[in-house]
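TICKET: design request
STATUS: open
ATTACHED STRUCTURE:
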């Protein structure tokens, strides 16, 4: 019998739009993130952690409720989380955890299920941001990422040491418009950041997320040089974009380091499950794009590293398919709470120990709902991903199908849907897509 430890603290750090390929533990070719890497080195790195709807508000709602977007009602940026929703925060709070959320909330209304909260209104500001907290609104002087970290550590200092805590520390960074801390504004100034191989690809679905053509002056923080067009514009704009993005990531990584040091100094290392993740991935010039939404891996994959020395082997890598809808059950499992039948996700506590649960999922279901919004023009779509393949259906005005062989073509450059040799794979994946839509009671779009 395993020794029984008290229930761990859960410290969940999540940034906004931080792609795994801008984390050195994931093999980034463009930056170093020593503090996030430290969690991976002392714990586990998830290789196949995916979001089920690659956009901010819906992913956050799925993390809290353990449900797909069509179940929790937050399918697009326009919807708020119903304050009556069941959520992991409420369950942990009812079960004796002290609960807090600090930083970006972006789910409308006041946080429910948290004893303490200090959140940004909407997207919040990078510089001298306003925060909403119990008791009102207050503007603070400083840089958003640093302030969120200060507030998180302040909360830990004041907590009741006789109860376990569940804290969600949610950074705004590195979200658009990628505004760096003053001290990092010249970071990478004289460096040419390597370009992704598919930077000069044309937009496939008419999406308005092209590096260069679809940046605003606010994104670039300067006027675009006159006469710059086509590939020359993209080349120039990529450097401006990626440097600001990585400057924002620097502060996030530094924040993670401050939190880890705090845990060490205060004897919280062994009894705290500490996680770093992002609400979804992001295109870093891949396919010529910025932003997320599309089911391609750069946006679909969530970075996720976790450390809990009592259970998680140091330096391990997990390749099971794990989803944002699993987080709620996983945290409840650490709190020794049973399953909520309304949640779609499953606990992956055992998977994090290096043992894949029997009959663990071999495929995942994805759906992006925000059809052709005026700013980004990404068509709605759904799809299924296995370890080896991805099948996507752009169902509006279609259907238009895409099939990728992820083993041979990890960058998803060649759509194989029309290849006769793939007919059996397509049939099998369409059956799997239908099975998953039934399992999650999502209605397929009619076409
Ligand atoms: Ca986001």
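STATUS: resolved
RESOLUTION: sequence designed for all positions
ATTACHED SEQUENCE:
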């Amino acid at each position: 019998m395993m020794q029984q430890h008290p229930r761990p603290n859960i410290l969940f750090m999540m940034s906004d739009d931080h792609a795994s390929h801008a984390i050195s533990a994931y093999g980034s070719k463009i930056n170093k993130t020593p503090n996030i890497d430290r969690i991976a080195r002392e714990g586990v790195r998830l290789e196949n952690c995916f979001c089920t709807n690659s956009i901010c508000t819906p992913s956050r709602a799925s993390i809290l409720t353990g449900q797909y977007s069509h179940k929790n009602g937050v399918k697009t940026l326009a919807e708020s989380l119903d304050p009556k929703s069941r959520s992991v925060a409420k369950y942990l709070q009812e079960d004796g955890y002290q609960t807090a959320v600090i930083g970006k909330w972006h789910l409308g209304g006041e946080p429910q299920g948290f004893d303490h909260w200090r959140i940004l209104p909407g997207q919040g500001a990078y510089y001298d941001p306003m925060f909403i907290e119990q008791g009102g609104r207050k503007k603070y002087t400083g840089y958003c990422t640093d302030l969120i970290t200060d507030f998180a550590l302040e909360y830990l200092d004041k907590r009741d040491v006789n109860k376990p805590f569940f804290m969600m520390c949610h950074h705004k960074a590195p979200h658009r418009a990628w505004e760096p801390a003053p001290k990092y504004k010249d970071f990478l100034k004289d460096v040419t950041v390597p370009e992704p191989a598919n930077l000069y690809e044309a937009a496939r679905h008419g999406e308005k997320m092209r590096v260069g053509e679809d940046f605003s002056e606010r994104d670039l923080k300067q006027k675009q040089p006159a006469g710059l067009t086509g590939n020359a514009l993209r080349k120039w704009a990529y450097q401006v974009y990626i440097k600001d993005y990585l400057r924002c990531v620097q502060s996030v990584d530094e924040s993670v380091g401050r939190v880890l040091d705090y845990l060490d100094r205060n004897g919280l290392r062994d009894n705290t499950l500490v996680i770093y993740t992002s609400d979804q991935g992001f295109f870093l010039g891949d396919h010529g794009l910025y932003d997320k939404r599309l089911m391609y891996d750069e946006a679909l994959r969530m970075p996720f590293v976790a450390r809990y020395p009592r259970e998680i082997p140091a330096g391990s890598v997990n390749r099971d398919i794990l989803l944002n809808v699993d987080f709620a059950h996983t945290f409840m499992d650490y709190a020794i709470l049973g399953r909520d039948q309304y949640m779609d996700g499953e606990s992956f506590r055992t998977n994090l120990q290096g043992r894949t649960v029997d009959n663990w999922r071999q495929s995942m279901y994805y759906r992006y709902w925000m059809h052709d919004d005026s700013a980004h023009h990404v068509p709605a779509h759904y799809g299924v991903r296995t370890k080896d393949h991805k099948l996507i259906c752009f169902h509006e005005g279609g259907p238009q199908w895409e099939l990728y062989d992820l083993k041979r073509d990890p960058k998803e450059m060649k759509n194989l849907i029309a290849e006769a040799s793939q007919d059996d794979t397509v049939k099998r994946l369409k059956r799997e897509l239908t099975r998953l839509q039934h399992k999650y009671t999502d209605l397929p779009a009619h076409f």
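CLOSING REMARK: The mean pLDDT is 96. The CA atoms of residues 7 and 334 lie 7 Å apart.
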